[in-house]
Amino acid sequence: MKRNTFIYWVSTGLLTFMMLFSAYSYLTNPDMKSAFVHLGFPDYFRVELGIVKILGALALLLTMVPRQLKDLAYFGFALTFISAIIAHISSGDPFVMATMPFLFLAVLAVSYFTRSAAGKPALNGKAGLA
Fold first, then answer.
1. If you ran DSSP here, which 8-state letter would residue 111 be given?
2. Contact 118, 1 (CB under 8 A)
3. C-alpha dihedral over 98, 104, 110, 111, to 10 degrees?
4. Which of 57, 77, 100, 116 could anchor a disulfide with 19, C-beta 3.0 to 4.6 Å?
């Protein structure tokens, strides 16, 4: 396996694991309800976000999913991480609380920019392995 392909699958695997774990936590952990209220979000948003994270993780993992849906999942995750950073800072949380979403955003970027190495079309539209 080539180095870039390895980096893609490790970063994508880590990203999807993080998303599935957080989705599970959103849907099953009662403390998450108060965390979302603290950030100013309604409770239904927690459930909605948990379900969408599961769908996005599956879209990135399953090879038969069209590129457009994978792009939508990448965009949705990036929007989620950026929104989480802003929400934590705006709610008065210590800056360290915003570092986890920033770390997740970095892993997302690695996955996105190395995806052409896994046999997916490159960002410029040309197919090929790195």
1. H
2. no
3. -150
4. 57
**Single pTM value for the model:** 0.83
Token pair listed for 50? 């948990």
- Is residue 47 a contact partner of residue 26, using CB atoms and an 8 Å limit? yes
Residue 127 DSSP label: -
Q: For residue 3, give both structure tokens.
A: 């180095």
- Reduced to 3 states (helix: H, G, I; strand: E, B; else coil), residue 96 is helix
30-52: pLDDT as tens digits: 899 888 888 888 989 999 999 99
**What's the N-to-C CA distance of the chain in angstroms?**
11
Provide the 3-class DSSP secondary structure of residue 101: helix
Relative orientation angle of helices 67-90 and 99-113, to the nearest 10 degrees: 160
Buried b (16+ CB within 10 A) or exposed e, 108-127: bebbbebbbbbebeeeeeee
Alpha-helix runs per DSSP H in 3-122: 3-28, 31-39, 43-61, 67-90, 99-113
